[in-house]
Design goal:
Blueprint (H helix, E strand, L loop, with lengths): L2 E6 L6 E10 L4 E3 H5 L6 H7 L4 E3 L7 H16 L6 E5 L10 H8 L7 E4 L5 H14 L5 E8 L19 E10 L7 E8 L7 E2 L21 E2 L1 H23 L8 E4 L4 H11 L10 H4 L6 H11 L8 E8 L3 E8 L9
Parallel strand pairs: 5-6, 5-7, 12-13
Antiparallel strand pairs: 1-9, 2-8, 3-4, 7-8, 9-14, 10-11, 13-14
Bound molecules: oxa(dethia)-CoA.
The site of oxa(dethia)-CoA (UT7) has 20 residues, from helix 2 and helix 6.
Length: 345
């Protein structure tokens, strides 16, 4: 059984509006040559099958919250705000099972006593979190929300697994959303989202949760992401294409109206297949996977930030942001690109 929600349109008068954008990558880079020196793989295989040349990896002393704080600071500076009403951190790699990562981030940002919570939806986490934030703004529960996607994927990737180690990287990105009107630049439009837990084992960390608590003495201790790559690939192309169409249609946009499609950076061939399925020219589909790999929930805000900085996102463009990940989960939202947004990286 599939649980999916069709797109819902927020009232035209009251929508969430993007006013701040920031991102952070830890300084250390790992090249394909570095990986090939210890794994049975090659630079050529990784470039042609995934589209990645290098990825950023956090040092052992750095946790997801540290990456999130850096991105959050930049987003708040970009928005020129010193306070927000709530913080949501989308992550699959929290600092701890308990407590959540968001309260630590809010504390580090000096945002004392505001609501702060994590959202776990795999690589779709950031788009899910912006949808939740837009709902809070729409309901007037919060006026301004900081939404962060942050991952230390290197903490959950088996360094000896050649089917995952070349794909993933670490990083964080963040946006500040505030109340606005649906027809003004910066406004988020209708979101479409869904999930299908039938495929829960396609991307899964087997141990360390309540199903199989880590117990090294019983030999139960696999703390790493295990992925059925081909299955994930097929579903990703289908779901991303579908949810993009649903979100655009709910906004009243034809596919040809989309100026920029911001696709979760899972694999360059997934983005190409989605563009091909939808008939969107590849020059309208920005990409940064070659330099950052798949950063899971950080992928979308990192790509937004990098695309804004390199001039690929311009005022009033019609943008669709679209994602797919563990769960399976998928989500998309439309966005009118703001005027005068200074992204900071
Ligand atoms: O963010 C959401 C989560 N993740 C994704 O969306 C990832 C989705 N999946 C993928 O990106 C791709 O399925 C992978 C990159 C994981 C794998 O690419 P593929 O083209 O689907 O490769 P494959 O698994 O079908 O393997 C093809 C061949 C196999 O060899 P044989 O059996 O044909 O001899 C693999 O053993 O490539 C081999 N292979 C490798 N060779 C060199 C698999 N990994 C590697 C490697 N280096 N790293």
């Amino acid at each position: 059984m599939i649980f999916a929600r069709k797109a819902t349109t927020p009232s035209p008068a009251h929508a969430a509006r993007l006013i701040g954008l920031g991102s952070y990558l830890p300084p250390q880079k790992v090249s394909n040559a570095d990986l090939a020196s210890r794994l049975d793989t090659t630079d050529e295989w990784i470039r042609t099958r995934i589209g990645v040349a290098e990825r950023h990896i956090a040092d052992p002393a750095t946790a997801t919250s540290d990456l999130a704080v850096e991105a959050g600071l930049r987003a708040m500076k970009s928005a020129e705000v010193e306070h927000v009403d709530a913080v949501i951190v989308a992550t699959a790699t929290p600092d701890h099972h308990v407590p959540g990562t968001a309260p630590l981030v809010a504390h580090q940002l000096g945002l004392r006593q505001i609501p702060a919570f994590d959202l776990s939806a795999g690589c779709s986490g950031f788009v899910y979190a912006t949808t939740v934030a837009a709902g809070l703004i729409h309901a007037k529960t919060a006026g301004t929300v900081l939404v962060i996607g942050a991952e230390k994927m290197s903490a959950v990737i088996d360094p000896a697994d050649r089917s995952t180690a070349p794909i993933f990287g670490d990083g964080a990105g963040a946006v500040v959303l505030t109340a606005g009107h649906a027809d003004e630049p910066g406004a988020l439009g209708p979101a479409a989202w869904g999930s299908d837990g039938e495929h829960a084992d396609a991307i899964c960390i087997p141990d360390g949760g309540s199903r199989r608590p880590s117990n090294p003495t019983d030999g139960v201790n696999d703390p790493y992401v295990r992925m059925k790559g081909n299955e994930v690939f097929r579903h990703a192309v289908r779901r991303i294409s579908q949810v993009t169409q649903e979100s655009a249609a709910a906004a009243g946009w034809a596919i040809q109206d989309i100026d920029r499609l911001i696709v979760h950076q899972a694999n360059a061939r997934i983005s190409a297949a989605v563009a091909n399925t939808l008939g969107i020219p590849t020059e309208r589909v920005p990409s940064n996977i070659i330099h950052v790999g798949n950063t899971s929930a950080a992928s979308i805000p990192l790509l937004l930030s990098h695309s804004a900085i390199d001039g690929q996102l311009k005022a009033r463009q019609r943008v669709v942001v679209t994602s797919f990940g563990a769960g399976f989960t998928w989500a998309a939202t439309t966005l009118l690109w703001p005027i005068d947004l200074q992204a900071l990286a």
